[in-house]
Specification:
Bound molecules: CU-O-CU linkage, copper (II) ion
Strand order of the largest sheet: 16-15-12-18-23-20-21
CATH topology of the largest domain: Immunoglobulin-like
Structural class: mainly beta
CATH architecture of the largest domain: Sandwich
Radius of gyration: 22 Å
Pfam families: Cu-oxidase, Cu-oxidase_2, Cu-oxidase_3
Helix content: 10-25%
Distance between the termini: 36 Å
Number of helices: 6
CATH superfamily of the largest domain: Cupredoxins -  blue copper proteins
Number of domains: 3
Protein name: Multicopper oxidase domain-containing protein
Family: Belongs to the multicopper oxidase family.
Number of strands: 35
CATH class of the largest domain: Mainly Beta
Largest sheet: 7 strands, mixed
GO molecular function, one term: oxidoreductase activity
Keywords: Membrane, Metal-binding, Oxidoreductase, Transmembrane, Transmembrane helix
Length: about 500
């Protein structure tokens, strides 16, 4: 409270100084004016697009006698040449940086052998996956240095673009920034039948966007002292490639956009403002495609878009400045920044692609809960200092939900900085944003939603279990430094009449 009020006052004073400084050229005001004008970043028109986009390999898998698909992920240190001749220390899964794309089908049993060869504990969380709490890879499923953790579960959710990343308590931002992140794609019968671009690496491209700053050879992790959302890099990379271009040989290409940055919000569009079809969000396909020319993604969010190319052309996926937000947010938390993210180069002759289907899923096919089925509401006040006034505590269960029920959660950001909200295990329906029907980009399956300053978002969630009163799932702000500082809470799913157990106060097995 005090901190927030103090910061607001500081903000007001500084803004006044900036105005005064601009008019009078006063020394103090002048230096703030310099801070102000030097705080926004743009790589628009400056990106060279001279590196072919890296496409993470599909992870090999074996099938056990009982039909379980088995993957191996090794967390390791490495070294990556982002720039010619400069070796940057990085971390990766099965390689020097980032990780392979895991792929499985609805109905399959999967098992992942996660081996941690780092010299510190970490974890691997399956972001967006519906699975038992003990397999979730959150802070309670710590994988100690040198040890192996083998979660297994049955994939039981619609086709989607999910991802995986570490979730060690208090160190998630650093582990992700060092390069531990990858995609986990799910398919189902419907997605296999639909006439959408679906050849991985050809007309169906993973696009993991991260922002970086280099400090000599090293990745810089510093936070600007006026930024309160975390690390904001001065340039972007896609799948670990700086200045990337991708050659396209098909008339339509599907981009699976993932904001894998730790704090930056992107507003994606193309340099010529062309419209594209949004076909999927965090947890799966929309009921019908939505045409648009901008899509905003906060950290952790995904969007699947289909863009139509003309033969021989080049177009650039760009991140534009935010459309809303107060001037402080825009200036110091990246809202005024813009990036040329990825150039698409179309071949002179393109293979024809079918039109994007007008229906992608039945309404029921979204498998989202209805507000009318809600048996209880909960309120979450989002503050950097903690959700509902409490910083995260490993041994405290904040919310207990009953297996098989639907709830409506109200997320309120009454503070003065941007947050978002992510819930483990479930895909939720966004009911309204400040009382209004959500825009098309928020009408599909979601596990992460932005909650801008001053706004209220209501979501409906259904908890289908299995119950485990002793092992919590997390909900948190996905601005990773906020999460690390304690902007996270824990919930358990119990059977009717059951009570929450007592999770251990430390990360363990
Ligand atoms: Cu993507 Cu709790 O995380
Ligand atoms: Cu998650
Ligand atoms: Cu936050």
């Amino acid at each position: 409270m005090e901190k927030t009020r103090g910061r607001r006052r500081l903000k007001r004073v500084l803004i006044t100084l900036a105005v005064v400084g601009g008019v009078l050229g006063a020394a103090v005001g002048g230096s703030f004016a310099w801070l102000w004008t030097s705080a926004d970043i743009s790589t628009v028109g400056k990106a060279r697009f001279d590196n072919a986009l890296a496409v993470p390999p599909l992870a090999p898998s074996t099938v056990d006698k009982d039909g379980t698909r088995v993957f191996d992920l090794r967390m390791q240190t490495g070294s990556t040449e982002f720039r010619p001749g400069v070796a940057t220390p990085t971390w990766g899964f099965n390689g020097d940086h980032l990780g392979p794309t895991l792929r499985a089908e609805r109905g399959e049993r999967v098992k992942v052998r996660v081996r941690n060869t780092l010299d510190e504990a970490s974890s691997v969380h399956w972001h967006g996956m519906h699975l038992p709490a003990a397999m979730d890879g959150g802070p309670h499923q710590s994988v100690e240095a040198g040890s192996t953790w083998t979660p297994r579960w049955k994939v039981d959710q619609p086709a989607a673009t999910l991802w995986y990343h570490p979730h060690p308590h208090g160190a998630t931002e650093r582990h992700v920034q060092k390069g531990l992140a990858g995609m986990f794609l799910l398919d189902d019968e419907r997605s296999e039948r639909l006439a959408l671009p679906k050849t991985y690496g050809v007309d169906d491209l993973p696009v993991m966007v991260q922002d970086v700053t280099f400090d000599g050879a090293d990745l810089d992790h510093g936070h600007h002292f006026l930024a309160n959302t975390g690390f904001l890099g001065e340039r972007t990379m896609v799948n670990g490639t700086l200045d990337p271009y991708a050659e396209v040989g098909d008339e339509r290409v599907r981009l699976r956009l993932l904001n894998a940055s730790t704090a930056r919000i992107y507003t994606f569009g193309f340099d010529d403002d062309r419209s594209f079809s949004l076909v999927g969000t965090d947890g799966g396909l929309l009921a019908e495609p939505a045409a648009m020319n901008r899509i905003q993604l906060s950290p952790g969010e995904r969007a699947e878009v289909v863009v139509t190319m003309r033969p021989g052309e080049r177009t650039v996926l760009r991140s534009y400045p935010w459309r809303a937000g107060d001037s402080w947010e825009r200036r110091f938390n990246g809202g005024d920044d813009s990036f040329d993210v990825l150039q698409l180069r179309a071949a002179e002759r393109l293979r024809p692609s079918p039109a994007v289907p007008s229906r992608l899923a039945e309404d029921e096919g979204l498998e989202l809960p209805e507000a009318g089925d809600s048996v209880r509401g909960r309120h979450f006040e989002l503050r950097r200092s903690g959700i509902n006034g409490r910083p995260m505590a490993m041994d405290r269960v904040d919310e207990t939900v009953v297996r098989g029920t639907t709830e409506v959660w109200t997320l309120r950001n009454g503070g003065d900085m941007t947050h978002n909200f992510h819930v483990h295990d479930v895909q939720f329906r966004v009911l309204d944003v400040d009382g209004k029907r959500p825009e098309p980009a928020l009408r599909g399956r979601k596990d992460t939603v932005a909650v801008p300053v001053g706004s209220t978002v209501r979501i409906a969630l259904r908890f289908d279990g299995p119950s485990d009163p002793d092992t919590p799932y997390m909900y948190h702000c996905h601005l990773l430094s906020h999460e690390d500082e304690g902007m996270m809470g824990q919930f358990v799913v119990v059977d009717k009449g059951q009570r929450a157990g007592a999770p251990p106060g430390h990360a363990g097995h």
